[in-house]
Amino acid sequence: MAQIELVNRKFPEWLKVRLPKPDKIQHIEQMMRMARLHTVCESARCPNLPECWSKGSATFMILGDICTRHCGFCAIKTGKPLPVDPQEPMRVAQIAKRMGLKHIVVTSVARDDLPDGGSGQFAATIRALHETIPHAIVEVLTPDFKGKTWCIRRVVDAQPEIFNHNIETVERLQAIVRPQARYDRSLKVLETVKRLDPTIYTKSGIMLGLGETREEVIQTMRDLRNAGVDALTIGQYLRPTQRHLPVQEYIHPDQFEEYRVLGEEMGFLFVASGPFVRSSYNAIAFSQRVMAERLARVGAVESA
Question: Residue 255 is part of a domain; what is its CATH number?
Fold first, then answer.
């Protein structure tokens, strides 16, 4: 197995910490704790938490906060998860409604301990959100469900507007970055979603700074586009603790901009590329594009 050399690098000037708005953050945190809910914002130590929470936006993390996988980049706890909570989907929907969310992102830890990988809980949460907030856009960010088509179908049948599954890094680094996943399996998940329901928008994300080359990044983008992926997020990997993989390189914003332009030229409907971009960061920007696209499709059908 290839090894990543430990590299100590000073933060560049373009990586600056966002200042929080304590009152708003505390309010959201209290709502989440009272409802016994988790957010990936907290568990993954996302650098955008202050900005997103101050705007009343958060990514719900269902199925607990303990993951069955051990990815080299992720700060989420690993171990033996708790039992699935059947009341969790409705609590997510109720809190999302109280927050006034128009675009709700739902993700989860990997639950390889469950026969369905947690797909049933995803489906129940999507349905609860659609019933509680009928006009909201629901985006799911799922694990790979070990590539099981019936699990993917269960989520697709619940009709999320956007199905996100991150490939995370280039093919060469998969075994180091996420040893319990596979590059080809992730592509297959995204292809399967499009095959089962072409009307659902698909999305994926890549982290940079783990030792990948420019050519490898571009090839990954091509592979995702060939899999029918509609939206792409590209961001800088930031090491959450000393136990995690070291940063090999801080990518300059100009390079992120080049990838954004290349992605649009490849045909992605939406590309968010920048140092602080994460899967769910400013997700509403894509949902606005989704709605515009959807309205255009409806208009075309009606005029035919």
Answer: 3.20.20.70
